[in-house]
Amino acid sequence: MTDGLDLSRVRFSRTGRLIVDDVDVTVPAGALGALLGPNGAGKSTLLHLIAGIERADAGALAFAGSDLAALRRRDRARRIALAEQETHDAPELRVHEVVALGRTPHLGPWSGLGERDHAVVAESLAVLGLEPLAMREYATLSGGERQRVNLARALAQEPELLLLDEPTNHLDVRAQLTSLELLRTLAASGRTVLAALHDLGLAAAYADHVIVLDGGRVVASGVPADVLEPRLIREVWGVEAEVLAHPSTGRPLIAYSGVAAPHAVEGALDVRR
Amino acid sequence: MTLRRVEEPLRVEPVETSPGGGFETLAALAPQPAKRRRARTALWAVALGAALVASVVAAVTIGPAGLAPSDVVASVLAHLGIGESTLSPLRDGIVWELRMPRVLTAAAVGAGLALCGAVMQALTRNPLADPYLLGLSSGASVGAVIVIVLGVGLLLPLAAFAGALAALVATIALAGAAGRGSGGPGGGLSPTRTVLAGLAVSSMFGAVTSLVIFWSATGDSYREILNWLLGSLAGTDWVSVAIAGGALVAIGIPLIASARTLDAFAFGDAAASALGVHVGRSRVLLLGGTALLTGALVAVSGSIGFVGLILPHGVRLLVGSRHRALLPLSALAGALFLVWADTAARTLFDPRELPVGIITALIGGPVFAVLLMRRRVS
Lengths: 273, 378
Known about the structure:
The complex is a heterodimer. Chain A is of the alpha/beta class.
């Protein structure tokens, strides 16, 4: 048990197919964790299990020492927020109304938003630089703007554990780095952050801790410099890459050189774990 | 843990600069837009409420007998035990026994249908959802007609509820089965499939209603069939007011209290669940509530269509989509709308009466078409 997120032997299957297979994950409080893996590795499902959207078939999920399965849904939503990928069909709501949805678990059925709720909403908008868009209809926003609004909504939940599914989708380079720097700041303030990312370079540059999923199993986890090495990248993603040290930060820098030859991927299966 | 504690380090530069500088002043007063919206909602509520009261009085005066608004007020006050009625017993009967119950039933039915429409649109995330279009009203009619034929009138609202529930389950099951295996957003319950399934279900239940009436009737059954299929408020009395009004209060209040839950569905089931909503339980309870309310309304009025479609969309244009404002205002607007639609139905071709559903469909059809084009539902 740690102060952070602690998953042990978590298993989940849907329509007979095992999607999350015996997963152990630890993200310490105050750390920015990156969940990596190819498409279909089970990243989103694992985030849904932690957020309580789906229930694990087996295993233990704990956060800050308390069993997540025992928490009431509303209490869980006060402590854990999930910022999902931008959705296809947008509701007819303004940006500040969408962010105010994040207050839902903190409010009773008849109570309106109080002064404090308004302050939290305003601050969540401010943190993501969304004040200029506050009165805009969500449906009129670009993909990148929606992504930031979704993150602001999650922040308005005032979570201790923040989960993010592909938070850098649709964002330009500056916005990607800004988002990850924000996540690092949030982690530094004592929150636990776990983000599913596609971009290995971003994970290498910003995460304190990376977890690599493949076929529903954890194939590696640890600090980026230990985990992200050429062989693992070839085995999991099927691409050839060299890993250098960043000249100024010293963090791993991934230089792709091409798609790996099929036999190199197949032959690697037995050394995965 | 609050955001405040980490306010300073959290400050990051805006990722993009705003295109129009004018919004920045608004944003500086961040809670302001929410407050302004609340004030606007309250204003609309007062306006619609006042219009409704005035319309009820006005609608009672309309028709042969040449009543004045003051006559209506005097009669109502006398029956409530305040003052003496100056009206002749005949004219007093027209106000108190004929028109007032009918107008109040129209108000309750209109309010309830609009409320059901708004709730169903949120829960199915389908802008075209409405108790009539998804077959609930037809199902309720079957239940109602069967108990009337069997002569067990006391069970009327209950049977209508059972019919509405059966139709709801049939529509959702059919839409889900038709959509199985087709991926994409919304999965099986896409708006189009749901409306098509509702069409199939309501056609079938409509046919059953017609058959039952035709088979049981001794004389001219066509008028009766029309009244159930298109909806009519002819012949409503204080019992109708009690059924429709009672159901509106008993079910409408919990529905309005669920506004925040309905808001949370805006981004889909997973997002609602992450916000702490019991998704499955809420959907069953709230859809069950709409079926119950629809059943009670249809039991007194037949299947009046499109009220649940027109009014919520109209109200959204005025106050936005947050359900705390949308639900009560839709109910008020629905009441106002149906009071006037029914007044038109009984006076346009006086002395003959039009089923009120014809009027609501004349207005609702084009609204449906506009929604279809605007959403490019495919």
